[in-house]
């Protein structure tokens, strides 16, 4: 099996949701970025979650937003020209609701100038078999980076994904739960330096599969990035570190 190469000018990237839909005029990192990953894009418009929350815990925070965005058609109308002029590869991060949507969105992006890769996230409730179906549907002309949350990096389904011919795995922010207002549990994605041991562990565990690995969670310093690259990561993604100025 010939695995497509991931388009990267350098091993430093932003994570989806950290810097909007198009490259900013000035990068938060001084190093040359290897690619720009867009904000998550759904097929239809998504509104913010009614119970949005940002809840701190030791070493990080939980974020629940609902991943609002205007939908693929509106995003293309607003940003396709900027993507075409970008000086680095654009990776469109997709959040389809089902495999059929994944196939449709990838097909619409294959002829968009500047978009050189797809990064795909699963819906929170998708099981292993559904994950394989999503990946199969999203495989097309563009290299596919498949997001694997750290809390789902174990299990035989990941090896099956590797056999499908995905270009890379992105080790992404895991989901968790914290008590919110009135002690009601709130679910969301976890961010922060406390995730670094988990991303390092997942990286080492999945390295034997032979799929390029992108460390996309828990990277909050240049030392973190250097350690992950030294351990075999093909690239690293900075998420909330870009908001807080940790680096």
Question: What's the layout of helices and strands?
Answer:
Blueprint: E1 12-14, E2 36-37, E3 53-57, E4 60-64, H1 72-85, E5 90-94, H2 99-109, E6 115-120, H3 128-138, E7 144-149, H4 156-163, E8 168-172, E9 175-179, E10 185-191, H5 196-206, E11 213-215, H6 222-230, E12 235-238, H7 241-244
Helix pairs in contact: 2-3, 3-4
What do you see in this structure?
This protein has 247 residues and is α/β, with parallel strands linked by helices. It has one domain (12-244): TIM Barrel. 28% of the residues lie in helices and 23% in strands. The strands form 2 sheets. It has an 8-stranded parallel beta sheet. Strand 11 (213-215), helix 6 and strand 12 form a beta-alpha-beta unit. Helix 2 packs parallel to helix 3 and helix 3 (128-138) runs parallel beside helix 4.
* Proportion of residues in β-strands: 15-25%
Gap from first CA to last CA: 38 Å
**Uncertain residue ranges:** none
Q: What's the CATH architecture?
A: Alpha-Beta Barrel
Radius of gyration using CA atoms only: 17 Å
> Portion of residues in helices?
25-40%
- Biggest beta-sheet profile: 8 strands, parallel
How many domains? 1
- Summarize the helix and strand pattern as letters: EEEEHEHEHEHEEEHEHEH
Instruction: Give average pLDDT, whole number.
Output: 93
User: What name does the CATH topology carry?
Assistant: TIM Barrel
Structural class, by secondary structure, is alpha/beta
Q: Major sheet: order of its strands?
A: 1-12-11-8-7-6-5-2
